[in-house]
């Protein structure tokens, strides 16, 4: 008795797919040859190697790899989308033309390239590292095809998988890339500090790091982004170094302030958030790195940024400095300026601008979290409860109406209040995002010994660059009120 089978047999379906793939590749080849000039290709498609065809019920996708002398040009591919009628409906191309091919007569061995890559990734010789890939190919720069090795390394420090593109001749680093998948954790923080979030300093006391119902009531649950997955508070933009050695296998970091691990979470969350905010404004090249934050390693009531070590340190005297987001933001501000102008603040006025910018960054960050009511024009309300009797307590204010040169005290923190006020007023007038973008843009115009007037002119020029000078009159007025010139 004959058997009956509904639909195509597996063999028939396979043959149909293969036929579709072959037909699609033929259609893609013909189309690219006819339109070679449009895509900067050779008429015979030399320098473009076929990779694969993916066929689906809706159409096929033909992928090619750009090559030089038979070796891949890394990350340079071309895809052709072919519809069911055999027509190419879309071409997406990374193909990059070049005028010459650089030779490497003294070509490195693969082993030499791996050693170079490990050094560039900065494993510091701390234990084993191993490669998971080492491929010879090319990159194209300034119209020239350059011979390179692409080396993928698993390192111990910094932990994880990294890619280094190393020149195949002289061994110089051409590109380094972090390949690690980032993890998201969770934790508890003050947001931004318990005084501002509660709207009062009443009933809030440090009491040698003791917990209290009033302080615990101000804890907020947050996501900790960009973690490296090791269980430590280390990630894309900050790595915590502390006595507590905070670690969680499930990436949950819920502590109260009586536990030193709480300050670790505070520092990680707020620094990471600030860097992501800077990038949201369109700046991918301002302090875009994992900065070390030393927490509870310094017993004085002070915090600082080290321009030589490029790290942050938060003191534990009085209220622990890392319990206040305003202090964290202020110190991160110094790191930001140093990344834009190495050695910034070498003069009294330059140093004062550094302190003023840090206060601006802290105050506007606090305002953005809770609104600009209680704590308006004040920074670090919680940290300052141990030394300020004002209401609210303030480390410094941004509305003291100081005028240059009449109120110059010759001390950078005091004179920073001359600079912070027009910045803060600008944010009030045109919005935090617009003002911060102008201010950050202006830093690149400055030098280590820049003056207040240099800074004011740079801010007006940055507004011209970014906004066609739309805010010029507002900028003029705010700086003129402080005795500073924008002309």
UniProtKB/TrEMBL annotation:
The keyword Signal applies. Residues 1-20 are annotated as: Disordered. Residues 57-93 form the FTP domain. Keywords: Hydrolase, Metal-binding, Metalloprotease, Protease, Signal, Zinc. GO terms for molecular function: metalloendopeptidase activity; zinc ion binding. Coiled coil: none annotated. InterPro entries: FTP_domain (IPR011096), Peptidase_M36 (IPR001842), Peptidase_M4/M1_CTD_sf (IPR027268), Zinc_Metalloprotease_M4 (IPR050728). One of its GO terms (biological process) is proteolysis. The keyword Zinc applies. GO terms for cellular component: extracellular space. This is M36 family metallopeptidase. It comes from Fictibacillus marinisediminis. The lineage of its organism: Bacteria, Bacillati, Bacillota, Bacilli, Bacillales.
């Amino acid at each position: 008795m004959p058997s009956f089978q509904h639909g195509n047999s597996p063999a028939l379906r396979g043959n149909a797919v293969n036929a579709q793939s072959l037909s699609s590749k033929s259609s893609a080849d013909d189309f690219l040859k006819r339109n070679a000039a449009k895509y900067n290709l050779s008429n015979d498609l030399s320098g473009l190697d076929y990779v694969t065809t993916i066929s689906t019920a809706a159409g096929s996708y033909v992928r090619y790899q750009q090559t030089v002398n038979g070796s891949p040009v890394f990350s340079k591919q071309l895809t052709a989308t072919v519809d069911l009628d055999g027509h190419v409906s879309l071409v997406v191309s990374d193909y990059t033309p070049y005028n010459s091919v650089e030779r490497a007569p003294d070509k490195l061995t693969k082993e030499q390239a791996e050693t170079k890559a490990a050094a560039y990734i900065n494993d510091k010789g701390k234990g084993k590292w191993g490669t998971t890939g080492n491929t010879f190919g090319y990159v194209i720069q300034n119209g020239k095809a350059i011979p390179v090795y692409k080396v993928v390394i698993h390192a111990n420090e910094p932990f994880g998988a990294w890619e280094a593109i190393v020149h195949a001749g002289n061994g110089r680093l051409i590109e380094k890339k972090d390949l690690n998948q980032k993890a998201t954790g969770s934790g508890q923080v003050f947001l931004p500090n318990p005084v501002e979030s509660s709207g009062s300093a009443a009933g809030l006391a440090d009491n040698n790091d003791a917990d209290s119902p009033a302080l615990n009531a101000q804890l907020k649950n947050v996501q900790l982004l960009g973690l490296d997955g090791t269980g430590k508070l280390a990630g894309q933009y900050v790595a915590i170094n502390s006595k507590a050695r905070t670690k969680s296998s499930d990436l949950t970091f819920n502590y109260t302030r009586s536990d030193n691990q709480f300050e670790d979470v505070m520092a990680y969350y707020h620094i990471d958030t600030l860097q992501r905010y800077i990038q949201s404004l369109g700046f991918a090249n301002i302090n875009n790195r994992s900065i070390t934050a030393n927490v509870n390693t310094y017993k004085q009531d002070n915090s600082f940024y080290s321009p030589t070590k490029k790290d942050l340190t938060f003191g534990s005297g009085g209220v622990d400095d890392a319990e206040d987001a305003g202090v964290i933001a202020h110190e991160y501000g110094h790191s930001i300026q140093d990344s834009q102008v190495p050695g910034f603040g070498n003069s009294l006025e330059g140093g004062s601008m550094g302190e003023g910018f840090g206060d601006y960054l802290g105050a506007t960050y606090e305002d953005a979290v809770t609104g600009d009511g209680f704590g308006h024009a004040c920074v670090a309300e919680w940290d300052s409860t141990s030394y300020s009797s004002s209401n609210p307590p303030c480390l410094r204010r941004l509305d003291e109406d100081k005028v240059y040169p009449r109120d110059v005290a010759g001390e950078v923190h005091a004179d920073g209040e001359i600079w912070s006020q027009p910045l803060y007023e600008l944010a009030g007038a045109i919005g935090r995002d617009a003002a911060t973008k102008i201010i950050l843009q202006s830093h690149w115009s400055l030098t280590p010994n820049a003056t207040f007037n240099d800074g004011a002119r740079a801010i007006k020029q940055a507004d011209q660059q970014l906004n066609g000078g739309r805010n010029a009159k507002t900028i003029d007025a705010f700086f003129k009120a402080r005795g500073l010139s924008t002309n």
